Each structure stands twice: as structure tokens, then as C-alpha cells.
Amino acid sequence: MTAAAARPASVPPLPSGGPVEIVPGVHWIGAFDPGLRSFDTLMKTANGTSYNAYAVRGSAGVAVIDTVHADHAEAFFARLEAVARYDEITQIVLNHLEPDHSGALPELLRRAPQAEIRLSPRGLPILRALLRDAFEAARILPVTTGAEADLGGRRLRFLTTPNVHWPDTQCSYLVEEGILFTCDLLGSHYCDERLFDDRVGDFRFAMDHYFDRLMRPFRSFVTQALDLIEPLELSVIAPSHGPVLRTDPRGYLGRYRRLAGPRSAPGPDRTLAILYISAHGATARLAQAIRDGAAGEPGVRVSLFDLEGGELHPFLDLIEEVDGIALGTPTINGDAVRAIWELLAMLVDIETRGKLGAAFGSYGWSGEAVRQVEARLQGLKMRLPEPGLKVKLNPAEEDLEEARAFGRRLAAHLTGRAPPREVDLADLASR
Ligand SMILES: Cc1cc2nc3c(=O)[nH]c(=O)nc-3n(C[C@H](O)[C@H](O)[C@H](O)COP(=O)(O)O)c2cc1C
């Protein structure tokens, strides 16, 4: 959804205002969007957002760090012009190329064609697709962790911090001032023209909500980024959305550490959650037998849940924490049942890559559901070491024994006692 489409007409725009000095020679030149109510189709934004861009002046030139959404280009250029001439701009730093930060870039390049673009190597193909014909003419220098841009008496040092939340993401660190420009990392959709964290309203909820909706699927990458950031001397964290963080910047890193870390201390055992739904009890009996088999293996803690008996959201927290899941569903009208699909759709909000996944279920005649669930688990980059278990109608004793053996094998895959084996989609299609 575009920003314009998401903005109710009743919300008046804030007065445009000028650039905001962060320290002498470093200015916020972004734009406020108080009326935005939906971002990236992923989250609601109850009091809008800001698109934060910055200008850093050195004795040899000016660096512009990120731009703004195209709908707000006018405010951005007005603020930029208040602190620099276009012919003074030597660097354009692109910490992240999503359109809310790169929307004004094509016009900025027209006005400052001499400027050299600094971005991560993984930003290159994205920039090419954004600029199209203008890409070849642009002066582009990919940078990785440790590279520096000399602005004259001031250096910008780059940190490659991929996948928070796009592949191209990086941070830029103004060495002499200890200011870290983090783009979306540590951002908040929280529009308040007072800008600094010690002046705006209470935005802690907005920062946590932002993490939950945008960063949570990339928790391990956030942790890697924090590992790079934490050794730095920090006076200010300047993200691309929401307040500029100048009060105890390290406290915000600690907050992110907690958000990105496990919700509970991991125990000594590997963990398997079996979640199922069952109309007539057949899939439920399979689930119970899989649990009995898996629970008999040492070093694995197994839990069993009937999706009929729970709200789905807590299961998301559970699945994020466990090492593996087995999902059970009957085939109803040629499909897995709705609660399973809803849960599977929600899994996009958490990090699932590399977790063990498995599917099972009872069926009457065509039995499509298990294969469909397996395909979705593979789409979520989970590893599927065992082909799914399908049983026709009520499981006989030998079916239940097969389910127990299935559970034992899943447990062995979790503890590393079984040799790794991936299910391939061609094989799934033939079943
Ligand atoms: C409304 C309805 C539709 C069904 N559609 C299918 C189907 O399309 N293909 C199939 O293999 N079985 C179908 N079945 C059969 C169920 O998959 C089968 O009864 C299964 O054992 C139910 O498992 P449960 O006891 O765990 O609910 C259908 C059953 C019902 C009640």
C-alpha cells in the first residue's frame, strides 16, 4: 500500500519546519508523515512515522545519508538545501534501499550527479532495479565492514549488517562524533516532530512493535548486527524511522538484545512441538503416537497441542523457541484445514529457517493435505528430514506403530543421531 493510500484525510500535515541539528555539522533532513496508518502491509502505524535522512558536513564535502519516501521529497529537499548546496555533496550513503528511504534518490542524483554512492554489495542489484537507465551513469562504490569515507576531518565507517530486514542493509558510523546511522535497525514508527528521544512521547511500545513486525523474522541477523555495533563508542543512534536516540544509546542496544534473544532460557534438551487438528479423532491418535515415540528418545522434550483448543498467536511464540515442529491435519475437501493454514501463514513473522519440520495426517481417499503442508514448510526454509506420514481413515495398530517410529526418527534427527535426509519436492509431488 502506498503511503498516500494509507493516510486518512482527517489528519492534518505537521508544519514542515527546518532541518534539525544533531551536533554541529550533522543535521536531520528527513520528513514527518503523521497520517500514515499502514506500513509495508505488515503493520499498523497508529501515529504515523518519520523518514529520517541526515546530512553530515566535513571540510571536504557533505554526505547525505538515506533519503525519504517519494511523497515527501519536497520537504527533504527543502531541509537539505537549508544546510548544503548540491555541488557540495560528495557522498550519498544508502543504508537501505526500500522505497521509503530511496524514494527521493533519483531526483537527488539529478541534482547532485557528482556524488558518489556508498552502499553494501548486496544493494547493487537492488539499486540497478531502482534506477534502471540512470544506474550506468551513477558513480557507485560498494563498501563492506571497515571501509571508510573521508569527508575531511570526519570519517564515515561502514558496517555490513545484512538482512535487518532486507539483504542490502548496512549501518554507517561517524567515527569522530560516535553517531551511528542504523537505518531500520532500532527504528520506530512513531511520528513526533520533537525528534529526540528525551523530548518525544513514550515511544517504547512503538519500538517494540516495530521490532516484532519487521525485525523478528530476522532475529539471528539482528544479533549479528548487535555484535558489530556493541564495541563502538556511541553518543547517538540515528535510525531511519522515529526518534533519534541520544539518551543512553547503549540502553537501546540492550533492549534489542532482549527482543532478539530467546524468550526463555534454553533447557538441556532439544524440543519438538506437535500441533494438530482433527475432526474425527484419527489425526489426534496419530499425534499422540508420534509424541509417545519421540518422547521415548533421550535428549528430546516433546509437547503436544490441539490447535482447536488455543489461540494461534501463543503458538507462534512457542514455535519460535522450539527446535522442530510436526503439524497434523486431516484432508478436508482436498486441502489442509483452515487453522493449519492460518498458523502456517503466521510463521512468516518469525525465524523458521533451519528448524525441523514434518507433516502428518489422516485422509479418506485423496489425502492432499500432508503434501501441501510439507511444501509450505519447505517454503519457510525449514528442513524436512522425513517424508510426511499419511494414514487412511482410522489408524490401525500397525499405523500407530509406524507413527511411533516416525516420532522416534524425528527425535533422532533433532539430537543428531539420524543421518540427515532432505525430502525433495519432486518426490513429494509423486506421492
Ligand atoms: C467434509 C469432509 C471432507 C473430506 N474431504 C476429503 C478429501 O477431499 N480427501 C480425502 O482424502 N479425505 C477427505 N475427507 C476424509 C477425512 O480426511 C477422513 O475422514 C480423515 O480420517 C479425518 O481425519 P480426522 O479424524 O483426524 O478428522 C473428508 C472428510 C470430511 C468430513
Automatic annotation (TrEMBL):
Transmembrane segments: none annotated. It comes from the Bacteria. Its cofactor is FMN. SUPFAM superfamilies: Flavoproteins, Metallo-hydrolase/oxidoreductase. Residues 272-411 form the Flavodoxin-like domain. The keyword Translocase does not apply. Keywords: Flavoprotein, FMN. It holds the Pfam family ODP. In the N-terminal section; belongs to the zinc metallo-hydrolase group 3 family. This is Flavorubredoxin. It comes from Cereibacter johrii.
